[in-house]
Write a structure and sequence with these properties.
Strand order of the largest sheet: 1-2-5-3-4
Number of domains: 1
CATH class: Alpha Beta
Largest sheet: 5 strands, mixed
Strand content: 15-25%
CATH topology: Ribosomal Protein S5, domain 2
CATH architecture: 2-Layer Sandwich
Number of helices: 4
Shape: elongated
Radius of gyration: 18 Å
Helix content: 25-40%
Order of helices and strands: EEEEHHEHH
Number of strands: 5
Length: 128
């Protein structure tokens, strides 16, 4: 079987995933998963799609991720892995869709508006 590649996005993060048969090793930007994501929560987020379909020890994952923060990057990787698993076998789709891993979370940061402190926060009003 050849290398399967997929794309995942979240906020401003973009993850390109290359999935191939192996022993379950995950490399993110040429670093081990535990080195790149020290948080246990983010590590489980990245592995979530593989554990749902019980394939976490059968595939090696190589990831290039760019932009955004650590949580956005982890969720972008999760989406890309889920898409790659579906392209391998369509039988994985119902289980992943039930957990909500096949949907791209389109929420983005609202831009700052002119005359405001943030997107919606106004400057403090002074009567006198």
């Amino acid at each position: 079987m050849e290398v399967i590649n997929a794309l995942g996005r979240r906020k401003t993060s973009v993850a390109r995933v290359y999935l191939q048969p192996g022993k379950g090793q995950i490399i993110v930007n040429e670093r081990e998963l535990k080195d790149y994501f020290p948080s246990e929560i983010l590590q489980t987020t990245v592995k979530q799609a593989l554990t749902i379909v019980k394939q976490d020890a059968n595939y090696d994952v190589n990831v290039n991720v760019d932009g955004g923060g650590s949580k956005g990057q982890a969720e972008a990787i999760r989406l890309a892995i889920a898409r790659a698993l579906v392209s391998i076998s369509n039988e994985n789709r119902p289980a992943l869709k039930k957990e909500g891993l096949m949907t791209r979370d389109s929420r983005m940061v609202e831009r700052k508006k002119a005359g405001r402190r943030k997107a919606r926060r106004r400057f403090q009003f002074s009567k006198r």
